[in-house]
Design a protein that fits this description.
mainly alpha; Clc chloride channel; 2 domains; 20 helices
């Protein structure tokens, strides 16, 4: 080392490898991307909540305006969303998680850029909010995953990372950060990335995911404070007889969630059956309008409780602060199914948890030996685990969102049982099946890659740096 200057060759090997400019560039991209994902998730959350509130205020207007407005706004709003989606933002339909999983597994760069582009992120944001304003029963968590992955992927493309594994690591980190910021559940973001998005876990992946989740979580915590989405309950299960509720919720929630997932998979692959499906293919915008009318009918039957994400309804069920129809769970399920088949962007995370809360409330009436709050939480985790078939993600999300750590073991048991029951009806996990179908519809433009180790941007070894030196260094 002459004149205090570190030779460029030393930057590629040995103890000075950590000073390599390429490694620091990747770290900066990761940190800045995580901050951007956190800000986007918060803006999305506030916008979605505003849209929900505006729609609810319109529903609560005195007659004749309140009862009539949903029958106007619903059909017109969903038709407009589908028209904008097909005209300006193709590829934004549905949850967004299957598209992100597909982007992780595809090797074709052009297809990956189409799945995770700034245009897709903007469209996902705006159209989901417009769908919520129209009264659709959709969530924003799945779209937040695609938005987060799109932000990270776009930043990675700007820096032109040379390794495809590094690009995939950014996508995985962006999706995980999106979950963490959307739910204010950092641990759930990590678990979701491991269990659902990558279906594998390697030590080199953990640094990228953990860094992105921590930074995005800090942004969310600083902006919105520490909160629990679905309130909190201190209810616990005591005594051996109370564990009957675990078995009941696990079996019922698992089969119900599996049936819902199987319907989504079938409708996504084959479309609706008969003349209804043919009409949906020929006249998608008019079909979306009819779906909006159906949502207004369901909303009228439920007293307006099936509109939107379901956050407030789930909280009121869990904390016992509201009066909802005993049929809320099934009505919310039907509303979510109608919203999905309409072809608008939107996820099923939050609606599934709300459906599970309604299901748990029904089962609590059949289990007087167990606290109602505990049964409701069990219903939430069981139905959600049945839908996504990711039991660890399910109980971690519910624990973090309800702040009830005394129920860890019962929730784990119910989640695992529900996932097993769900597989009897739905053989393949929902998001993986939808991702494969999405690629099939794209004509398999890119060859799927196996879930190998994803090298994070900040984990390139000195040997990697030596074998792939950046040209600008020398």
């Amino acid at each position: 080392m002459a004149n205090g200057v570190v030779p460029s060759s030393w930057l590629r090997r040995g103890r000075y490898a950590w000073l390599h400019p390429r490694l620091w560039l990747r770290r900066i991209v990761l940190w800045c991307g995580a901050v951007a994902v956190g800000v986007a998730a918060i803006a999305f959350a506030l916008s979605a909540e505003f849209a929900n509130d505006v729609h609810q205020r319109m529903v609560d207007l005195p007659a004749p305006f309140g009862p009539v407005l949903p029958f106007i706004i619903g059909p017109a709003g969903l038709a407009l969303v589908v028209w904008i989606t097909r005209r300006f933002f193709p590829g934004t339909q549905g949850s967004g998680i299957p598209q992100t999983i597909a982007a992780l597994g595809v090797s074709d760069e052009k297809l990956r850029d189409k799945l995770l582009s700034p245009r897709v992120a903007i469209g996902k944001f705006l159209l989901t909010v417009l769908g919520l304003f129209s009264g659709a029963s959709v969530g924003r968590e799945g779209p937040t995953v695609q938005i987060g992955a799109s932000i990270m992927h776009s930043l990675g493309r700007l820096t032109r990372f040379s390794r495809i594994e590094a690009e995939r690591g950014l996508i995985l980190a962006g999706g995980a950060a999106g979950v963490a910021a959307a739910f204010n559940t950092p641990l759930a973001g990590v678990v979701f990335a491991i269990e659902e998005m990558s279906r594998s876990f390697e030590s080199r992946t953990s640094g990228t995911v953990l860094t992105a989740v921590i930074v995005a979580g800090i942004v969310s915590l600083w902006w919105l404070g520490d909160y629990t989405y679905f309130g909190s309950t201190a209810a616990v299960l005591d005594g051996s007889t109370a564990w009957i509720a675990v078995l009941t919720c696990g079996v019922v929630g698992g089969f119900a969630g599996g049936a819902f997932s199987q319907l989504l998979i079938v409708f996504s692959r084959r479309g609706l059956p008969g003349r209804l499906g043919e009409y949906a293919r020929r006249r998608p915008i008019m079909f979306a309008a009819y779906c909006g009318f159906a949502l207004a009918v369901i909303g009228a039957i439920s007293g307006g409780s099936t509109y939107g994400t379901g956050y407030h309804e789930a909280r009121s069920i869990l904390e016992g602060t509201g009066e909802l129809s005993a049929a809320y769970g099934i009505l919310k399920l039907v509303a979510t199914l109608v919203s999905y088949v309409s072809g608008i962007p939107g996820g099923v995370f939050a609606p599934s948890l709300a459906i599970g809360a309604g299901l748990g409330d029904n089962l609590a009436a059949l289990a007087p030996y167990a606290p109602a709050g505990a049964v409701i939480v069990l219903g939430m985790v069981a139905y959600f685990a049945g839908v996504v078939q990711a039991p660890v993600t399910a109980f971690v999300i519910v624990i973090e969102m309800t702040d009830n750590h005394d129920m860890i073991v019962p929730l784990m048991a119910a989640s695992l049982l529900a996932a097993g029951c769900s597989r009897i009806i739905c053989r393949r996990p929902l998001y993986k099946a939808l991702a494969d179908q999405f690629l099939d519809k794209k004509g398999r433009q890119g060859k799927l890659m196996t879930p190998e180790t994803v090298t994070p941007p900040d984990a390139e070894t000195p040997r990697d740096a030596e074998e792939n030196p950046p040209r600008s260094v020398d």
